Amino acid sequence: MPVYDMEEGMHFQCQRCTNCCRWPGEVVLSDEDIDQIAAFLGMSVYDFVARHTHLRANRSGLTLMEKDGGTVCEFLDGMDCRINPVKPAQCAGFPNQWNFKGWRKVCEAIPVPESKS
Ligand code: SF4
Ligand code: SF4
After folding, report:
1. Is 93 helix (H, G, I), strand (E, B) or coil?
2. Which class for 116: exposed (0-12), middle (13-18), buried (19 or more C-beta within 10 A)?
3. What is the pLDDT, as a whole number, of residue 20?
4. What is the pLDDT of residue 116?
């Protein structure tokens, strides 16, 4: 995954603005994401996939469902993620492990010195 516009020795700390849960785009799910989220919700993998995911536009896997056919992730509840302890790796990795050109204009994460431990 590409990483743009980072600062040497700094880690971007999420400010929980939830913009990344609202903008258009897919939340790609790995098999591990699916297993963990289904277990967290107390659902079978079959039911979780049927109720909370749909096929990606390029048909190469599954993405989380959006609310009411819009762009907001179905698991956003106010300003909280209902599956925060097991949120998909794509969510947990943004913006430090991956991001996109211009991400700092739309993400409120702030740079803090990286922990050495
Ligand atoms: S799973 Fe949680 S963190 Fe990821 S987009 Fe949905 S609400 Fe946001
Ligand atoms: S857009 Fe950035 S600051 Fe806002 S919730 Fe997502 S990662 Fe955190």
Report:
1. helix
2. exposed
3. 98
4. 66
Which ligand sits closest to the CA of 76? Answer: 1
Q: How far is the CA of 111 from the centre of ligand 1 (A)?
A: 21
Whole-number Å distance between alpha carbons of 104 and 43: 36
Residue 90: nearest ligand to its CA?
1
Give pLDDT < 70 ranges for the chain. 116-117
Residue 115's pLDDT is what? 78
Report DSSP state, residue 115. P
| Residue 114 DSSP SS3 | coil
pLDDT, tens digit, 9 for 90 and up, residues 58-85? 999 999 999 998 999 999 999 999 999 9
Q: Which DSSP string corresponds to 30-85?
A: -HHHHHHHHHHHT--HHHHHHHHEEE-TTSSSEEEPBGGGSSSBTTEETTEETTGG
Structure tokens given for 9: 């020795």
